[in-house]
Structures are given as structure tokens and as C-alpha cells.
């Protein structure tokens, strides 16, 4: 069972992580298209997820899930323990 933090916006954040969990590096536009959300919303959420260590941006404009993000999806990481910034 996943343990979201109060700072998370679900189901949007989880859908973003699930799309990135495919192993692909994707930009906000591609993610938004796949989860039926506006690109600006996805971009804002990616920045927040990056701040908390769930995604990283190894190449300008492209994101990938981190080990923390994968652990969260597997229910092995409690995001509620992270402080809201």
C-alpha cells in the first residue's frame, strides 16, 4: 500500500511516477499526454517530485524516476515522513 505525503497531489503525482516507471526518460508534454493532464500541471508536479527526490532530470527537459520514486510505488517508502517545504 502506498503512503503518500500531504504535499503530494494524487492521483496526478502517482500517475506521473507510474509513467516514468516504464524506464523511459520523458518530458512534461509526453507525460501529460499519457495521463490526460495539462502540460503546465505536469511540469509543476515534476518540479515538486524532483524537490522530494522522486524524480530526477538528467537531461534538460527530460525526467526519470529515482530509486525513491520506485520504492514509493512499491509501497516501500513512506512519503508522509518527508517534510513539506
Structure, briefly:
With 85 residues, the chain is mostly helical. The protein is built from 4 helices and 2 strands, in the order H-H-H-E-E-H.
Describe the structure in your own words.
This protein has 85 residues and is mostly helical. The protein is built from 4 helices and 2 strands. The chain has helices at residues 12-20, 28-35, 39-51, 67-73, and strands spanning 55-59, 62-65. Strands 1-2 form a two-stranded antiparallel ribbon. Strand 1 (55-59) and strand 2 (62-65) form a beta hairpin. The radius of gyration is 12 Å and the shape is globular.
Question: Element order, helices and strands?
Answer: HHHEEH
Cα end-to-end separation: 24 Å
Helix content bin: 40-55%
User: What's the helix count?
Assistant: 4
State the strand order across the main sheet: 1-2
Tell me the major beta sheet. Answer: 2 strands, antiparallel
Radius of gyration: 12 Å
Mean pLDDT equals 96
Structural class computed from helices and strand pairing = mainly alpha
Query: Approximately what portion of the residues adopt beta-strand conformation?
Result: 5-15%
E-strand count? 2
Approximate shape: globular
Q: Unreliable stretches, pLDDT < 50, 5 or more residues?
A: none
Please give a handful of descriptors for the protein shown.
two-stranded antiparallel sheet, 44% helix, 2 strands, mainly alpha
Secondary structure topology:
Elements: H1 12-20, H2 28-35, H3 39-51, E1 55-59, E2 62-65, H4 67-73
Antiparallel strand pairs: 1-2
Helix pairs in contact: 1-2, 2-3
